[in-house]
Amino acid sequence: MNKLELQKTANEVRKGIVTAVHSAKSGHPGGSLSAADIFTYLYFEEMNVDPKNPKKEDRDRFVLSKGHVAPGLYATLAEKGYFPKEDLKTLRHVGSYLQGHPDMKHIPGVDMSSGSLGQGVSVAVGMALSAKMDNKSYRVYTLAGDGEIQEGQIWEAAMFAGHRKLDNLVVIVDNNGLQIDGNVDDVCSPYPIDKKFEAFNFHVIHVDAHNFDELEKAFKEAKETKGQPTAIIAKSIKGKGVSFMENQASWHGSAPNDEQYAQAMEELEKAGEALCQ
């Protein structure tokens, strides 16, 4: 895909996020929107995956460590063709397979059930180690939140990954600066994030999470890095793409009402039209 197509796709993913969370009347739009471009790049450009064969053996693996931003992952999987986009409207409804957190048993394309914060990186490290032990070529990607990396288990996993030189592992930190209680640096500062990962023998790359040229360069660099895992620190805007949600911690876990939904969708429609000019 070229950059313009990626931008258009990410805009459709954002529409899916807002639609799903509005239909559920609950969920996490802020962090889903901040990660929409990352999801889009991973699934439409970077990863070797096939919606027609979600369990193919040599597929790249993805673990959503910050599982509460499931709406972002689901909207991307639907856009990629893993399941009908119409199903996004069933998010968090009784009987729906699209639960509030990813469920590997019922959702095609989900490699790991997640939601307990801090655990996803450990799982991804296990998958990457497994690939090494079996001489498999697949790569493993995991997305963590900058609030989530306040969890100690993240750093145990990082220590192990660095020690075992898991160069088939990429940890992406969605660095939108906000968590449920406010600014991450006020709650319990994780900074400097880069120096911490470097101390655990990670190759660290900084990117603008909303710039596809930078994302392309970063993931290429990660592939070329041998003998150490990579951490991509992706500076992002919480709520990106919906004006009244941007940089507002209050949209971490609230759903838009009907009026807000209409405004958000109108903004995203206009953004999509602008990309078609």
From TrEMBL:
The protein's required cofactors? thiamine diphosphate
Q: Say yes or no: keyword rRNA processing present.
A: no
InterPro entries attached to this UniProt entry: THDP-binding, Transketolase_CS, Transketolase_N
Q: Which Pfam families match?
A: Transketolase_N
Per UniProt, residues of the Transketolase N-terminal domain are 8-267
In its UniProt record, a GO molecular function of this protein is: transferase activity
> What keywords would UniProt list here?
Metal-binding, Thiamine pyrophosphate, Transferase
| Entry similarity comment | Belongs to the transketolase family.
The protein, known as:
Transketolase
Organism, by scientific name, is Velocimicrobium porci
